[in-house]
Amino acid sequence: MKLAAITPSYNDEALIGACIKGFAPYVQRHIVMVSQKPYFGETEEPDNTAEIASGLGAEVIYGRWQLDHYQRNTAIEMLQEFDWILIADTDVFMLEDDMKSLIEKLKTETKDAVRVNHYPYWKDWEHVIEDTFKPMFAVRPNVRFVHIGNVGCENALYLDVHQHHLSWSEPKDIVSKISHYSHANQIPSDWYEKHFVNWEESDQAVLPDRTYGIRKQSFPKELRELFV
């Protein structure tokens, strides 16, 4: 079975190296789609994302995309010879056991897209958001995204396979995230100072869309080592 990976990116030099190293043992081709402008907000000077990615063996494609589903679909068109394509954002990581389990399941999967469970980290590597969202993670090359992370086909859900997602956590640049990412235009102007910077240890956190429960969980040592 031939696997490839797609990673949309905009100034993600703190994350891209670990992301590529994490998926390298499992994929035959990894395309990093480097945006030359953000989805929203002012364009910043490019960082070293592209250089780090190419130095680790990934293929870098530059472009200007309105939202991330256009980015992903552009890359999918380039990967038609693969059986499955992993949608691996720069802040997404998976343990070896989860990857092996995923691969075995994909060998017999009858649907064209697969969602998985996930652990979205909050603030640091010691807190996880209690979120019920199940992200799209693997698609066949005939699948296209219709809006951000949604696909226009029936999909399977693997509840026993987990992503570790540094979605609201270091080393991610949260200021850049809330200024530029696909939901940036929905974030209140005072959210960062009021609810992120000033968050104190508790069992809740106010994210831009609503209040979530927070619990203690450490980012695994196996994944921390990808950043060394």
Task: Indicate the topology.
Blueprint: E1 3-9, H1 16-23, E2 29-35, H2 49-55, E3 59-63, H3 68-77, E4 84-87, E5 92-93, H4 96-106, E6 113-123, E7 127-130, E8 136-139, E9 145-147, E10 150-151, E11 156-169, H5 174-180, H6 191-197, E12 204-206, E13 211-216, H7 221-224
Parallel strand pairs: 1-2, 1-4, 2-3, 6-11
Antiparallel strand pairs: 4-8, 5-11, 6-8, 7-13, 9-10, 12-13
Structure, described:
By secondary structure, this protein is of the alpha/beta class. It has a single domain (3-227), classed as Spore Coat Polysaccharide Biosynthesis Protein SpsA, Chain A (Alpha-Beta Complex). Helices cover 24% and strands 32% of the residues. The chain is built from seven helices and 13 strands. The protein has helices spanning 16-23, 49-55, 68-77, 96-106, 174-180, 191-197, 221-224; strands at 3-9, 29-35, 59-63, 84-87, 92-93, 113-123, 127-130, 136-139, 145-147, 150-151, 156-169, 204-206, 211-216. The strands form three sheets. The chain has an eight-stranded mixed sheet with strand order 3-2-1-4-8-6-11-5, sandwiched between helices. A three-stranded antiparallel sheet has the order 7-13-12, with no helix packed on it. A two-stranded antiparallel ribbon has the order 9-10. β12 and β13 (211-216) form a beta hairpin. The chain is globular, with a radius of gyration of 17 Å. The two termini are 30 Å apart.
Supply the key terms.
228 residues, alpha/beta, Spore Coat Polysaccharide Biosynthesis Protein SpsA, Chain A, eight-stranded mixed sheet, three-stranded antiparallel sheet, 7 helices, globular
